[in-house]
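Hey everyone, long-time lurker, first post.

I ran two proteins through the pipeline my lab uses and got sequence/structure pairs for each. Pasting them in order. The first:
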Amino acid sequence: MRGLPFRRKEGRALKGANRRRSRRASSMTAFCGLTAALSITLMLTGGLIPLATYIAPLMASALLVPVCLEFSLRAGWGTWGVTALIALVLGLDKEAALLYGFVGWWPLAKGPLERRVRGSLPRLLLKAGIFAGSVALQYVLMVFLLHMEAVTAEFGEMGQWMTVIFFVTLLVCLLLYDRLLTPLAVLYQRRIRPKLRFLRRG
């Protein structure tokens, strides 16, 4: 009988911990769902504004940064996967949806990669290789497997040199996007994250 009060306290502590985990899970589900919905809304503009085909997927993938900072890398990967799938099914612009699928995961891999690879030049070369390979796979899929005639016709009109310039410009834009992710994460942590304390309440 002497141990009964302690068991009651342990029971209350266990219930409190379960309640906190439940709230945390609910907050994560709501936040990730809202992020996915906003990302899909951004990518829908790709079919309405030509330049948004390339800008919207990068803006949408940048939204994964808050997910990782507030919750976990696993939550970020889940949000990316759901967003990519829905955007591919519902997107007005398949090119924008595929760009998100092939490159939109980068904010999730950036941190782990930079912690393992030291030196500015090796990092730059590795990032350039990853971006070039991802974009090349995307357009090979679009042209040879999905047979997207509009993309094939567009490359035919541009000619060989303009096509090379297009891919080089896209690669440079992706590298600039990579550089912007760090200040964006810092800005979020300093200005926005303190206002979202309710997400971390137990």
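...and the second, right after it:
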Amino acid sequence: MTRGTGSGALSLRVFRRASGAQLLFKCRWLRVALARSQCAPNPQLLTEPVQPRNPDYQTEINRVFGKAPFIADIGMALVDVTPGHCRTRLDLQERHLQQDGFVHAGVLTTVADHTAGTAGASLVAAGQFVLSTDIKISLMRAAAGIRLHCRARVLKSGRRLIFAESEVFSEDERQEHTLVAKAMVTLAVVSGSPR
């Protein structure tokens, strides 16, 4: 199929491979458009404000951090929370390290999980809470330094499941931050009062 003439002409040829499963497009602008639509994030999706279902979501956030004994025990602190987003930090101590002097993977996982859970908790309705049902963490490099920083954001918030991602950074003495772990967390939205 050909439309128009000159350099702006539309020339599209579709060929089937022998298997018939894949189409090849011999049109430069179409290949570019397809590549952009599949690879480039839509900037509107990243900047749209998220509306919490509970206008008093800060009460749930205070409960999530104030009533979690393990989180208090490791010393994790809430830095900032907005609907669908959360930032936390952990000042590293010797008790957070494993046998070779690096931050223990359990600590990194806890920080990533709880930060993502807090981001998810900021979006649930009153009378609901979240529980992690699945976490996949990639430990990208050995973590060391004086502090961990974590930021999490909700990718999709549904009525029953919330999908979030967390990134954990280590901070060294020069205040340089290095990405050390990334997690994908699935949260179940549970109705009723927690135990």
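Reply from user beta_strand_b:
Welcome! Quick read of the second one: The chain has two domains: 2-40, 57-191. Residues 105-121 form the longest helix (17 residues).
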